[in-house]
Amino acid sequence: MPVIGILNCKMLQDEIIYLIQNDSNIKGVTVVENGEHEEFVQKLNENGISYTTVPMIDSFPDLKDRGDETAAGGGQNDADVSLIVWNLKLGLHEQPKILKEEVYKDLEFFAKKVDGIYLLYGLCGNVLGHVEEDFKDICPVIILRDSDGEVVDDCIGATVGGRRKYLSLLRSFNSIGTFIFTPMYEATVDEFFNYSKNRGGLTEEQMIEMNKFMFEASNYQQIGRLDTGLHYTKDTLPMLQKFADTYNFKIFDLEEHGSQEIFDDCYQKLKEKINLKEMAATV
Q1: DSSP string for residues in 131-198
Q2: 94 with 124: CB under 8 angstroms?
Q3: What is the CB neighbour count within 10 angstroms for residue 8?
Q4: φ and ψ at 24, to 5 degrees?
Q5: pTM (two decimals)
Q6: Residue limits of the DUF1638 domain (predicted)?
Q7: How many CB atoms lie within 10 A of CB 64?
Q8: Which of 117, 122, 113 minimizes the C-alpha distance to 6?
Q9: How large is the average pLDDT for residues 143-170?
Q10: How many domains does the chain have?
Q11: What are the respective helix, strand and coil percentages of the chain, to the nearest 5?
């Protein structure tokens, strides 16, 4: 049974829960315990999803050492798969070059363990656009792409349906700087915007002043709440309200709703690539 590796931004953990709940062919889920996994396994527990954990990715056997029983985990048909989920930290987004270095390093290591990798990232600072080509001779990798075949800009772009729809949404704000927050953004807003404080030794007041300067320079004035259609992340309004009050932002609900279409489509494309790879290996 094929093993699919999921290397993901922590911001997209709800979408992984959705995929697991909607694919009956997933026969096993393994989570890497790297310090970024706690919220994810809590949601697995809340939704009654069985899983195992490994303390680090190298605890999982390499492909060349994996027996059929280890790979299969009891799979009964050719469509069955198992997953290894590896959440990466949010702070990587702050420096795109470091994000690329970390993702590429992890992909190289992951490729030894799995039959294909679902990379739940977008361009993210325009550094991951060539990842599929760069790994084509190493391991099947699928990044988030829209129906036009374009790599999405970021997780918001994936949720709203791709680059054209994302651009249309941004234009609808009439040049008013607007943050678009999903429930996971709301839940992690303090972590996301205060990463520099923890890394650079800034005080809370210094971090707020630095953020205020950046937000005002970019004309950010409001936050649009995006309903993803998923409800695994709960009770986020107090965290969002605290952030909005700190920076004097208006909060409103977006008329547009997100969907899981891109996440579903790219997941299916990866499974197809893995099947083609296995068929070629048997010829």
Answers
A1: HHHHTTTT--EEE-B-TTSPBPSSHHHHHHTSHHHHHHHHHTTTT-EEEEE-HHHHHTHHHHHTHHHH
A2: no
A3: 22
A4: -70, -10
A5: 0.93
A6: 88-254
A7: 6
A8: 117
A9: 97
A10: 2
A11: 45, 20, 35
Domain boundaries, position 211? 158-256
Residue 87's domain is classified under what CATH number?
3.40.50
Q: How far apart are the first and last CA of the chain?
A: 18
- Per-residue pLDDT tens digits for 224-251: 999 999 999 999 999 999 999 999 999 9
Please, is 102 exposed, middle or buried when counting C-beta atoms within 10 Å of its C-beta (0-12, 13-18, 19+)?
middle
Tokens found for residue 282: 């048997």
In sequence order, what are the residues at sequence separation of 6 or more whose Cβ sits closer than 8 angstroms to the Cβ of residue 140? 115, 116, 117, 270, 273, 274, 277
Edge-to-edge strand ranges of the sheet holding 26-32: 52-54, 26-32, 81-88, 3-9, 116-120, 141-143
Residues 157 and 258: beta-carbon distance below 8 Å:
no
**Rounded to whole angstroms, what are the CA distances from 10 to 40, 63, 244?**
8, 26, 22
